[in-house]
């Protein structure tokens, strides 16, 4: 399916956006360090029924470097403004990782959404000692990459073999940009241990329907650590998929079928 692209202004940021298909819009928010190419396969799978709209977060993909902080709170404002700038009305919002965190914030704030599809979102696990240590270690790795450390690309590749074990082609694209994206990753991960990163109390405040789409093999945001908070969304369905962190990349057929069913139910 051939898509189209455009550039918009949202919350003081200039964003590159890809669009495919026609129908109920699905606004797709990618993980940190990724970009809108994550959703090309999904667009091929469901673009005959829905419009898949995917943006590049500031400083990622083809969007220029941002003016705001690399936080889910800022990204939620960006995505909410993007809904208006793109004329999407009440879209379904699909968010992965930090994109899922932004989607939770949008839902809790009453943004005009038809429903949320949360793919291994951040913000639902308790930030305890072990979590702080892992976050600190990864933030240090990304800071080393931003400084140009020679070993960083090898470490980044090893890390992404855990993140996307079932999406080798997409993983290679992301790893190829390891040094370019390191400053954004370093800033984002430095904030993941902050009090603002804990959104567990917001889940019960999300009135929109929620599809929780979790990858069984996620070693970064494990379901076991997020389960207690995730099950407090008032209107949720839960589905598990093969893969490490992004079901729409690693278990596309199963994910697309569940997405179709959910969006049809939310008409």
TrEMBL record:
<dbReference type="Pfam" id="PF12697">
    <property type="entry name" value="Abhydrolase_6"/>
</dbReference>
<protein>
    <submittedName>
        <fullName>4,5:9,10-diseco-3-hydroxy-5,9, 17-trioxoandrosta-1(10),2-diene-4-oate hydrolase</fullName>
        <ecNumber>3.7.1.17</ecNumber>
    </submittedName>
</protein>
<dbReference type="InterPro" id="IPR050266">
    <property type="entry name" value="AB_hydrolase_sf"/>
</dbReference>
<dbReference type="InterPro" id="IPR029058">
    <property type="entry name" value="AB_hydrolase_fold"/>
</dbReference>
<feature type="domain" description="AB hydrolase-1">
    <location>
        <begin position="26"/>
        <end position="257"/>
    </location>
</feature>
<dbReference type="GO" id="GO:0102296">
    <property type="term" value="F:4,5-9,10-diseco-3-hydroxy-5,9,17-trioxoandrosta-1(10),2-diene-4-oate hydrolase activity"/>
</dbReference>
<dbReference type="InterPro" id="IPR000073">
    <property type="entry name" value="AB_hydrolase_1"/>
</dbReference>
<keyword id="KW-0378">Hydrolase</keyword>
